[in-house]
Amino acid sequence: MSISKFLDYIYLEKKSSLHTKIAYNTNLLSFEDFVKTNFSIDSIENISYNEIRSWIVFLIESGNSNRTVNRKISVLRSYYKFLLKTETIKSSPLQNHKVLKTAKNINLPFSEDEIKSVFKGNFFPDNYNGILEKTMIAMFYFTGIRRIELINLKDHDVMINEGVLKVLGKRNKERLIPILDELINIIKIYIKIKNKEIIRINSSTFFVNKKGKMLTESFVYKTVNRYFSIVSSKTKKSPHMLRHSFATHLLDQGADLNSIKDLLGHSSLASTQFYTHTSMSKIKDIYFKTHPREKN
After folding, report:
1. Is 243 a residue of the active site?
2. By C-alpha distance, which of 278, 277, 275, 263 is closest to 142?
3. Does domain 2-85 have CATH number 1.10.150?
4. Which pLDDT band holds residue 280 (cuts at 50, 70, 90)?
């Protein structure tokens, strides 16, 4: 019962995505099954770290990477924090757990040339789906919004007359993102064909499929992956990589981290500083060109 309450909590109160809810459920049920099978324990609410340590060993011996194990343990940590919050338990069995060491894995963003190739390559069909997909990809790159934020956009959030996009992010935090004329023109074309071809009933969702229904996370991911597979050989070709590219390219052009932080909707600067890793060569170039001592 506690697992279902926890899943409702992260989905309804914390506003996590359906994908996250499903992943958390799979992870927790897998752990529960392991504990019940190996320790004859009926509930994972009141266990010790010994059972968790055994699961960690089992996961590693099964071929899972340290990064994957850390992600699974992170789900458990969130679950036990919830049990603490609801006073179901008095202490977390993970309170002294230390994360496993992992090698840094930096995913390179799309280059500016790769972005340009997608928009100039005549890849988008001249029909509703093609215009929808082009507008989605442009929205990701021009604004840096998250996949779930794009899916949840409402008609009134896209304020083209004011040149602003209103986004509801994590923890219901609202932010405004300016939109460039190039994106506004793409949006106008999408709105025109949507109003002409899509019959919707009581729906204010901005991005919809041909049946007028809200887009799925899978559809959005597959769309981005399909188009960028044409122009890029990078391993990661996802909506998040477009968000990554948005931030990196702004940083490359001299934007300050605080401004990028606000545009991305990060709660702390620490999250934004991740993007400095892939822009270090550009940062060095700016540094050597602008530092007053370098000019002596």
Report:
1. yes
2. 263
3. yes
4. low
